[in-house]
Predict the structure.
Amino acid sequence: MAVTTPTKPADPDYVRLRSTATVDSGKNLLDVKALKMHFPLTQGIIFQRQVGAVRAVDGIDFFVEKGETLGLVGESGCGKSTTGRAILQLYKPTAGAVLFDGVELTKLGGEAMRKMRRRMQMIFQDPYASLNPRMTVGNIIGEPLEVHDLARGKEKTERVQELLRVVGLNPYFTNRYPHEFSGGQRQRIGIARALAVEPEFIVCDEPISALDVSIQAQVINLLEELQDRFKLTYLFIAHDLSVVRHISDRVAVMYLGKIVELADRVDLYERPLHPYSQALLSAVPIPDPAVESKRKRIILTGDVPSPVNPPSGCRFHTRCWKAQQICSEVDPEFIEHEPRHWAACHFPGA
């Protein structure tokens, strides 16, 4: 198979296939451009000097349209959660741009960023660690209302009770503490806290991974109901491909700090172009014995390389069965191979 990445910038095909994963269609709420998040590695006790960096996120491009859910999947340690935190400026990005409704977040500071945070919130992965055990549920949910000066006193109490009703909890639980609730109930409290300031965009950082399977479906259904009711936009981070397929409109696949494929949900699951996406999807069981018996499972060899010293060229080439010499030498462009279907691979397809 011929290499699909054109080598000459003057080639008209090259111009046509250049990444449009951040082109604003007029419907974009979030645009992420060349985002990098590197964590420095230092040496020495008194006089510390940087000897390297963990390239947790290393130059990614994508957009999220208003009202949609973009799923972000990949192995543990690939940079999914770091991406979410860097978007919300909980981590200050090393490089790149994050535009929220046209506003460049990386250049905001202090009061301007605090006001912008009302429009975007986060649901954290661990419902046991994300809630302060010394605060009552009423104080946990009501704190954002006070921070943004939205409600105080009786008005705040009524607002907190209404939020508890919205997420399916008893509104009179406001004086209870987090340890008095189950994991699923705690996550609902976390969702209520995120909704308190009436945001437009929510980063859901693996919100069901710490919950029992029987509770996961309830939380997913709640998130979908809230999205319809409040016109929310989600970045849904997860490693469970079945859940992502259910809740997402589009899906981005991440590997070692890079997004390797981005497509509409149906296209990605039925026609994955990148070998890593193909390997991930081959591991998802299909509840049809006839179909399952004919599928070929792709077993990846080797370990995930270190983000401190990632491989040259394509980062997946050390584990890829399609890899050729160019894969170790040239980092493939993240280009649109089909309408709204981007992939970073020299040999995309089956």
